[in-house]
Design goal:
Elements lengths: L2 H17 L4 H4 L5 E3 L4 E3 L2 H10 L5 H10 L31
Antiparallel strand pairs: 1-2
Amino acid sequence: MTEAGCAEVESRLFDLFATLGATDDQLDFATVYASARSGVAHSDLAECQRLIREGGGTMSPLLDVLLDRVPKPPVRMTRYCPPRHQMHFGPSFLESIGMI
């Protein structure tokens, strides 16, 4: 994962979104650098690379960006109609699978 390679991917992704007619808000997407194999994610490339080399880190920054940037769906709660879908996050990958 090089800085030049990441910049190229971000540029192509921006161009793709623009070609597809994305709004300005959509074109202002967040970038999270991650290594699934190492279990590391970070918004800063150099920090992500350091965490991969030295160990440590988590995938939490990826979830944080999703929670911060993706709007919550409208939900109408009533006494007789509870929500049909729920997401459960646990401390390990297997416990973090969404339950529907």
